[in-house]
Model the fold of this input.
Amino acid sequence: MSFEQFIFYVLAAIAIISGLMMITVKNPVKAALWLVLAFISTAGLWIMAQAEFLGLVLILVYVGAVMVLFLFVVMMLDINMAILKEGFTRYLPIGALAAIAIFALMYMVVGPEHFGLDKIAAPAAKPADYSNTTEIAIPLYTEHAYAFILAAVLLLVGIVAAIALTLRRRPSGTVLYQNIEKQNRTEKSERLEMVKMDAVVEQPAAEDKEEEKK
Amino acid sequence: MNFVIPSFAPAIPEITLLILASLILVADTFWSKRFQNATYYATQASLLVAGYLVLSSFSVEQVFTFNDSFVRDSFADVLKLFTVAITLGIFLFAREYLVQHRFMSGEFFVLGLFGVLGMFVMISANNFITMYLGLEIMSLAMYAMIALRKYDGVAVEAGMKYFVLGALATGMLLYGFSMIYGATGTITFPEMKAVIASGEADGIVLAFGVVFVVIGLAFKMGAVPFHMWMPDVYHGSPTAVTLYLGTAPKLAGFAMVYRLLYEAMPGLVGDWQQLIIIISILSMVIGSIVAIAQDNLKRMLAYSGIGHVGFLLLGVIAATDDGFSAAMFFIIVYAITGVAGFGMITALSRTGFEFDRVADFKGLNAKNPWLALMMLIVMFSMAGIPPFVGFWAKIVVIEEVVKAGFTWIAVIAVITAVISAFYYLRVVKSMYFDKSEIQGPVEIISPALHWGVSFVAILLLALGLLPGSLIDLCYLSI
Done:
């Protein structure tokens, strides 16, 4: 086993274990932190596959931005984990069965038998000044410009959808705004209303009388 | 680096639609306070412009652009034209419903317009990435539209269900894409076809990928056994959104099936045909039998939609040009019938009254004979009773599947069509022979919708009497 393979297996093991921990752990904050670990080890795997730029972006975007935001949300919402985990043991057997079946199929297909070095040759080593970033950037903005713009449209639709679903405008009339000019211009007649009333003589309550006697 | 700027001309309808939708999105924030209907009219105008642009540059030959990620051919143009026409109808019906149910908002129309853009992208997609992005743009718009009535628990639940299952389906689809990319080394459909035909790609990996792609497609089309979301989502959504969900996206879904299975992977017919046969038969059987038990018309039409997907797949099973042409004719007819059926429910519902139960239609003939007649046409057309166009739609796909040598599937299809006629006719029976439970008259609120319902229903009859030109159009475009 070469040193590279050793690193690969260590990172892969960390990714799998943290993935499993993420779905089994009870505390949502801990789950999010396990997910961060899964992302970091995956980024390591990508860097080993010579996709340095993507590996770094994975850490910057997912770990740095998305997961931090996610942690904020999880901490702010008081999520009751007991309810979330309710069906977990009940559905575990059937879920595990499906997972094992799919894993077995994948193991048969995605292996050295079909993707071995004799089928697909190992890529040639790149020179030291080879830039991953340019290699991604040039096709992204030329060949795949159409897809790039579509991805932007997708994000726009996502923003519109998120705002449309969460913005709660209160119906007009229930929200009170302060209009200072109007307040200053107010006349006495607008605020004060003189009402004629019959004089009412208050009758002292029965209890008070008893107290007086004492 | 020598990069030639691609030709934008074939994509002008999409570009214009995107610009107009974005403008409306911004303008709506100013308009919505003063003019309630401004966004609606602007949306309809944009659709008309997009439709005109497609029609004026109708292309009979295949044109590729954007480095082969976009394809324009007569198949795409015909489907885009019908998408525009059907969406125009959807918005016409939806507006009055939104006003009646007090959630008239510009977002509905803007999201609807973006959804149409997503459908256009899917119809014209020529590689995996654009296909996926188009699908996501369309689906994301639909998830939001379903849950737009935020305080309605049922609608939010429907939106959530659709979102989670849709995300799962997309995951399946992407996994399949990645396998096929791994085996062929290309994402463009024509190249993929060439690589598969050359026999260089690993057959087992391809078959594995195809299984996931077919699962993803079946999920999106709502075919059994991936249909669980359909009844709940159709039932839970506001009817105006059900009208949108159940019609125009089906055309885009069919385009996705055609582009992926027939344009990219015709070499793998042996792999996907078996899967489609199972899915098709199960859809027809479950769609026709379970619908009998439904007392909510939207739920019933959802199961009827599942059954119709089964019929659509008959044309796909044939796996020939003619088979896909028949399926294309079928899906266009189904979309028009869907507009008529869901449009009828949309048009009849009033503030605080959804009018979506079968029981609500009892005694409609006594109250409003014209509407009862229109509903009768819609139900007969869905059941496939001549002379309505639904009959021709069913007959062409059955004909193609028989020609392809699957007579036994055709027999099952006919049996399920007869079973499904039961629940369509039950609606007709309750309209004509039962006593109404509703006090007061049953009327469509706006005269425009009255004309709309009548127009679509009579269109079903007219197309049924003269189906030749539409069938020819579909057979010529593939």
